[in-house]
Amino acid sequence: MTLLRLKTFGGLSITTLHGSLTEVACRRHALALLALMAAAGDDGMSRERIMALLWPEADEAHARNNLKQLSFAIRHGASSRLLASIAPNLRLDFQVMSADANDFERTLAAGNLELAVDLYAGPFLDGFHLARLSEFDRWVEGQRARYARRYEQALETLAHRAGAVGDIRGAVKWWRRLTEHDPVNTEYAVCLIDAFADLGEPLSALKHFAGHTRVIREEFDVDPEPSVRLAAERVRRRLTFDARRSGAMESAADD
C-alpha cells in the first residue's frame, strides 16, 4: 500500500498517512514536477521536456542543475525511491506515491468507468498556477481539456448503457453528472429531462428545464434550443394528460 497520494483533480496537493511533507508540499515547482510525472504515467517524461516547462528562460546547464536540486529535495522530503530514472526519462514510482490522474487512466483502460468518474474530482490542477511560465500553463490547459473530455466520454457511455438495459434511475444519475459538468450542453439537458420523465418525475424534469433556461440566458442571452423546449413540452403534455385521465377516473368512480 502506498503511503503518499498526489491529488491533481480539483487542485494540487499531497496527502500522507504519516509524517510531514511540508518542505515538498510548499514548493510549487516540486508540486508542478510531481504533476508532470503523474500525467506522464509509467513512461515518464524526458528531462529536456521538464526543463522546458519549468525553467524555460534558463540555459541548459542551469535548468539541469535546477532539476537535479529539485529532484533531490523531493527525494529528501518524501522518499528516496519516489522518482525513478528510465533513460532518458524521469518518472514517478507509483508504488511509492499513487496519483489520481494515473489511477484515472488505469481504471478507464480496465473498463471500470464508474470508478474512473468517481476519481475525477474537478478540473486538472484547478487553481494551480506558476507565475511567468506560459508554456507550463499551456501544458496544464491541454491536460485539463483532455481529462475533462475523457471524463465526459465515460459518463456518456455509462448513461447510454444504463438506458439500454432499462436502468432509468442510473441513466438519471449519469445524465445529471453530465449536466453538472457541462450545464449549457443541449443534448445532455434533453436526455436528463427525458430520463426524469421516464422515471416518473415530471416535476424534476421541468425543474431542470427551468435551471437550464436560466443558465443559457445568463451565459448567452438567448432562449434554450428548440429540442430542449420540445422535451419540456412533452413533459407538460404528459402532465396534462395524466391530470385529465385522473379527473375522468374520479368522475367515473363518483357515478
CATH class of the largest domain: Mainly Alpha
The general outline is elongated
Structural class: mainly alpha
- Rounded to the nearest angstrom, the radius of gyration is 25 Å
Query: What would the CATH topology of the largest domain be?
Result: Arc Repressor Mutant, subunit A
Helices, strands, pairings?
Blueprint: E1 4-7, E2 13-16, H1 22-25, H2 28-40, E3 45-46, H3 47-54, H4 60-77, E4 83-86, E5 89-92, E6 97-99, H5 100-109, H6 113-119, H7 134-164, H8 168-181, H9 186-198, H10 202-220, H11 226-254
Parallel strand pairs: 1-6
Antiparallel strand pairs: 1-2, 3-5, 4-5
Helix pairs in contact: 3-4, 5-6, 6-7, 7-8, 8-9, 9-10, 9-11, 10-11
Keywords:
Arc Repressor Mutant, subunit A, three-stranded antiparallel sheet, elongated, 255 residues, three-stranded mixed sheet, mainly alpha, 2 domains, 65% helix, Serine Threonine Protein Phosphatase 5, Tetratricopeptide repeat
Walk me through the structure.
The structure is a single chain. The protein has 255 residues and is mainly alpha-helical. It folds into two domains: 4-119, Orthogonal Bundle (Arc Repressor Mutant, subunit A); 166-254, Serine Threonine Protein Phosphatase 5, Tetratricopeptide repeat (Alpha Horseshoe), CATH 1.25.40. Helices cover 65% and strands 8% of the residues. The chain contains eleven helices and six strands. The protein has helices at residues 22-25, 28-40, 47-54, 60-77, 100-109, 113-119, 134-164, 168-181, 186-198, 202-220, 226-254; strands spanning 4-7, 13-16, 45-46, 83-86, 89-92, 97-99. Strands 2-1-6 form a three-stranded mixed beta sheet. A three-stranded antiparallel beta sheet has the order 3-5-4. A hairpin with a 5-residue loop joins strand 1 and strand 2. Helix 10 packs antiparallel against helix 11 (226-254). The longest helix has 31 residues, at 134-164. The chain is elongated. The mean pLDDT is 89.
